[in-house]
Amino acid sequence: MKRNVFSKISAVLVVVLTLLFAFGCAQSSSTTSDPEPDPPQLKYGEIKNIVLIIGDGMGIEHVSAGQIYEGKQYGFSSWKYTSVNTDSVDTIGKSFITTDSAAGGTALATGQLTVNGYVGKEWHGRDVETILDRAKAKGKATGVLTTDNLYGATPASFSAHALSRNDTEDILNSQLTSGVDLLCGSTASACTDKADNIAENGYTLCTDFEEIENAKTAEKAYWQFDMWGYNSDVKLEEVTPHALEYLSKDEDGFVIMIEQAHIDKYSHDNDIEGMVKSVASLNNTVEAVLEWVGDRKDTAILITADHETGGLTVSTSSQSHSDIATLDNKKLYYDWESGGHTDSKVPLFVYGINPDYSWFGYYKSHHLIKNVNVYHIMANLLNNGLRYAT
C-alpha cells in the first residue's frame, strides 16, 4: 500500500516539475523586445484618427525652456502626463546603451526594442510591422511629416526598413514601396533626385508650398519643402493643417507621425536659441492640430520624444546654472550636461484618451512606462477603439 501511495506522489511530482520546467523555458525564451498583449478594454468607442507628435531629443526641461522663452504655459503641458523610459538593446536582445533616434523611433513605431542604428527592424535584423502598417491594414490613411530629411532616423523608423540609419538609398526605396499615403520632409537632393522613382510608385511630387492645394488632390503625396531649422521658409505648423486635411479624406480615418526634428539638432550643438524656437514650433504645431480637431470626438493626440538630448536643465533664476540667455528680453538660466543623447526620461502627453498606464507590466505605475508602450497604446486604439475621453 505504501509503495502505491509513494508511486502516485512521485508521478504527481514529475508532472508538476515538467510543467514548471516548460514554464521556465517559455519565460527564458522571451526577450526585452517582445510586444505586450493588448490590455482589456472598457468599451468600444469613437477614436478613428491618431496624431503622434515627436519632439526629437525633447525632455521635460526642453518643454520648460520653451515656456520660459515664450512667457506662457503650453496648453499641452496640462494634458494627462506620464514619464517614458527610452531603451534600446544590444545584438543579443539585452538592455544596451542610451538609445539613438533610430532605435528610439523604432520602439515608438513598432513596439519592439532594437539595436541603435536599426530602422523598422527588431534586434535580430528582421523587418517588423509599424503602426502605420497596422493602420493601413485597417483601411486608414497614413502619413509621415518631419522637419528632417525623409531618410532621417525617426521618419525612416515609421516608413522604412534598414539595418543602418545611414543607408539613405535603401531607406528612400523602402519608403516608396511602403504604401504610406503622405511622405513629407525637408528639401533634400537625395529625395528629389528620385523624381522618376517617386512617380513610378504612384506618388505625386510637390516642392513648392504655394502649390500645396493642388498637391492635396494626389492619390499619394510626396512633399518636399524648406522646413530645415527655425529660419526656414516653411514652418512645420504651416504644413500640418494641410497634411491633416489631405489624410482626413479617408472616411476610415488616419494615423500620422509629425516630427519636430530640430529640438534634437540644436541640442546637439548646445544652441539654446535654436532649441527653444524649435520647441515653440512644436507647440504651434500642437495648436494647429487642435484647431483642426475643433469639437471632433474622434481624434487622439500623443506627444512624446524618442530620447533626451543634451542633459538640459533650466530655470528662471540663476541658482546653480552657469549660463544665461536673453531671448526676446526674457532671461533663461540653463546648463547643458553634454552634446549627446542621455538616458533621461522623456514626457508623454495625451489628449482625447485616458490610458491606464498602470496596466503595463514593467512598473505597474501611472507615472512611468517604456517607449515601446507608446506603440501599444496606439495599437490598442486601432484594435479596440477606445472611447473618447471628455
Short structural description:
The protein has 390 residues and is an alpha/beta fold. It is built from 13 helices and 15 strands.
Q: Care to describe what's here?
A:
The protein has 390 residues and is α/β, with parallel strands linked by helices. 36% of the residues lie in helices and 19% in strands. The protein contains 13 helices and 15 strands. The protein has helices at 2-29, 60-70, 101-110, 131-137, 153-159, 168-176, 189-192, 195-200, 212-215, 236-247, 262-268, 272-293, 371-384, and strands spanning 49-55, 80-85, 141-146, 182-186, 203-206, 220-225, 254-260, 299-304, 308-309, 313-315, 323-327, 330-335, 341-342, 346-351, 368-370. The strands form 3 sheets. Strands 5-6-4-3-7-1-8-14-2-15 form a 10-stranded mixed beta sheet, sandwiched between helices. Strand 5, helix 9 (212-215) and strand 6 (220-225) form a beta-alpha-beta unit. Helix 2 (60-70) crosses helix 12 (272-293), helix 3 (101-110) runs parallel beside helix 13 (371-384) and helix 10 runs parallel beside helix 12. The termini are far apart.
Strand content: 15-25%
What is the C-alpha radius of gyration, as a whole number of Å?
23 Å
Tell me, briefly, the overall form.
Answer: globular
Walk across the major sheet and give the strand order.
Answer: 5-6-4-3-7-1-8-14-2-15
Class based on secondary structure composition and strand pairing: alpha/beta
Mean pLDDT: 89
Poorly predicted ranges (pLDDT <50, ≥5 residues)?
A: 5-9, 11-33, 39-44
Summarize the helix and strand pattern as letters.
HEHEHHEHHEHHEHEHEHHEEEEEEEEH
Give the termini separation: 69 Å
Tally of DSSP helical segments: 13
Largest sheet: 10 strands, mixed
Give the proportion of residues in helices. 25-40%
Q: What is the total tally of β strands?
A: 15
